[in-house]
Hints:
heterodimer, A: alpha/beta, Rossmann fold, nine-stranded mixed β-sheet, 28% strand, B: alpha/beta, 2 domains, seven-stranded parallel β-sheet, five-stranded parallel β-sheet, 9 helices, 28% helix, binds flavin-adenine dinucleotide
Amino acid sequence: MHFVVCAKQIPDPETPPSAFRVDEAKKEVIPPQGIAPVLSQFDGIAAEAALRIKEQTSGTRITVISLGQERARDAIKQVLAMGADEGVLLDDATFQGGDSYTTARTLAAAIRKLGDVDAVFCGRQAADWDMGQVGLGIAELLGWPCAIIASSVQCAEGKLTVKRVLADGFETVRVPLPAVVTVSNELGEPRYPKLQQIMQAARKTVRSMTPAELALDPSTVGAAGARLKLERLFVPVAGGDCEFMPGDTPQAQAVALAKTLRAARIL
Amino acid sequence: MAQDILVVGELADGALSATTVELLGAAVRLAEGGRVSVTLLGSAAPAAAAPAFAAGADRAFVSGDGGYEPFRSDPWVAAVQAAITQAQPAVVLLAQSTVGRDLGPRLAFRLDTAAAMDCVQLAIEGGSFRATRPCFGGNALASYSFATSPAIATARAKSQDALDPPRAGATGETVALPGPAEARTEVTGREQAAATGLRLQDAPVVVSGGRGLGGPEGFRLIEQLAAAIGTHRAAVGSSRAACDMGWYPVSQQVGLTGKVVTPDLYIAVAISGASQHMAGCSGAKAIVAINRDPEANIFKAARYGIVGDYKLVLPPLIEAIRALD
Ligand SMILES: Cc1cc2nc3c(=O)[nH]c(=O)nc-3n(C[C@H](O)[C@H](O)[C@H](O)COP(=O)(O)OP(=O)(O)OC[C@H]3O[C@@H](n4cnc5c(N)ncnc54)[C@H](O)[C@@H]3O)c2cc1C
C-alpha cells in the first residue's frame, strides 16, 4: 500500500496572544520573535494514523508532501523521522500565496503524479488559517471518497474504517480505497522520533515537483489561482476590564463573587 | 442590489436547527429583496417547510426521504447541487456543523468555486459578498471576497440573528427534490454522547474546567458548582487539554474544535484562555475566571475574576451560591 501524508509548516499556534501581531497593510502575520514555526499539530496526528496502519500492514510505504517554502522541509523531515519513507516538497514560487482551492489543486496533482496512492491522510484543518478544506478538496478533485475528523483509522480488505467525531458523539464509517481521511486530536499524540530516526530521516530523499511536471497551468495555482481574496486581516480588540474580587481569603473572595453575580442579576 | 441566497437547512429532533433559523435571518438581510431558498432533507423535512418560511425562506427544496438520515455527504451534495442548479444563488450559506464542515468544501470544489469556513460576520459590501472569519486560532480576523460564484460560507452557531419577529404564518413555494443518490460511505455504527441533562449549547450557565484541575477528580467540584447553580440552568464544559487527558468527555469540549457556547454566564476554572478555547466562549454575556496565575490570558476576556487555587475557591463559592436567596 502507498499512503500520502500532507504536512504543513505553520507559525506555532500556541504563541501567546500577547505575542501575536499582524501587518495589516501586507495582510500577513508577523512571525513572532524567537518562536520557531512548527508542523501543524493535526498533520503530525495524520502521520501517526498512517504509521499505525503501516506497522500492521507489511509493504506499506508513506510519502509525505508539503506545499510551502524551503522551511517546510522541516515539516517533511519531522514526518520522515516519525517513520515515513520519502518526501515531496512543493516549493516552486508559483505555488505560494494561494488559498484552500489552489493548495488542494496542487497537492491533488502531486498525488496523481505519484500514481499508485491508496489513501491520503490530512489534518482536520491547518492550525494557522483553520479552514478545514484541503482534505475534502483533494478528495473532490481526485473523485475519491473522504471521511473527515477521524479519531481512529483502520485499513482492511481495500477499505478504511474510520471513527469520526460528531457534535453529539461518534460515528463509524467504511469507505472504499482510494480515499482521503482527515484526522483530529482525539486519535492521540503523534509519536516522538528517536535520535537515530532523526539521523536516518536526514538521508531520506525529498524531491521537488514543478508546475510543468504536474501539468499545472501557473495561472491556476498559488496567488494567481486563488478564489478567496483576503481583503482585510486584523487583530480583534480584547474585551473589558476584569473586576477582581476583593478579600484576603479565598472564602471572602468566593462570597464576594456570589454577591456580585447576584447584584448584577447574572445569578 | 438584490441577490438570491440558498441556505442548506438542518433538522434537529424533528425541527429546524437553531443555526438554520439564524442563517435564514442572515439570508433575508443579505438578499436585500432577492429570493431566499432553503434545502430541507430527511423525514421531518416536509413539516419543517412552514417554520422555514416563517424564519425567512421564500422557497423550500424538500425531500422527506428518510434515506437522507443520518447525514452522508454523497446524497446531500447531490441534492443541494440540484437545488443550486435551479435556484442559481449568488451565495450559499451553511452552518459550521458536522454537516457544513463536510458539505461546504465539497460543494465549493464540486461547483468549481470557493468556500469560507466558520464565518462570524456575513455582509454585502459595495454590492458583493464579504465573509469574515477568525483564523490563527481566533487571534486574528480575516475578511474575504470571492472571485467565483456562488460564494459559499459556513457560519458559526449564534453568530447570526434570526428574524425578529418571525414572519408568522408566511407561506412559500415548495419544490420537491429527488430521493437520495447512492453513498460511497457506509455508516456502520453510531455512539450517542451520554446526555448529561442540559445540552451545553442551550445552557444559560456553563461551568468549564481545564488542565489546571490536575485530574478528573477536579471535575467533581466543577459538577458541584454547576449543581449549586441549578441542574436546569448550568451545564459542565471542558477545555481541550482536559479532554485530551481523558478527564472529561470530548462531547463537552468548548472551543474552536469543540462546541461554541453563548451562555449568559461562563465560568472558566483553571483554564488559561488560549485563543482556540476563547473561540468557543467569547460570545458569553459575562465570563468569570478562576485561575491561580494573575497573568493568565483568561482574565483579559473576563468580567469578574478570582486569582487563586480552585481547590480553595470552589468549596466556599459552592456554599455561597447555595446560600443565595
Ligand atoms: C487548531 C487548534 C485547535 C484547538 N481547539 C481547542 C478547543 O476547541 N478547545 C480548547 O479548549 N482548546 C483548543 N486548543 C488547545 C489550546 O491551544 C490550549 O492548548 C488549551 O485550550 C489549553 O487548555 P487549558 O486552558 O485547560 O490548559 P493550560 O493552558 O495548561 O492552562 C491551565 C491553567 O490552569 C491554571 N491552574 C493550574 N493549577 C491551578 C489551580 N490549582 N487553581 C487554579 N488555576 C490553576 C494555570 O494557571 C493555567 O492558566 C486548540 C489548539 C489548536 C492548535
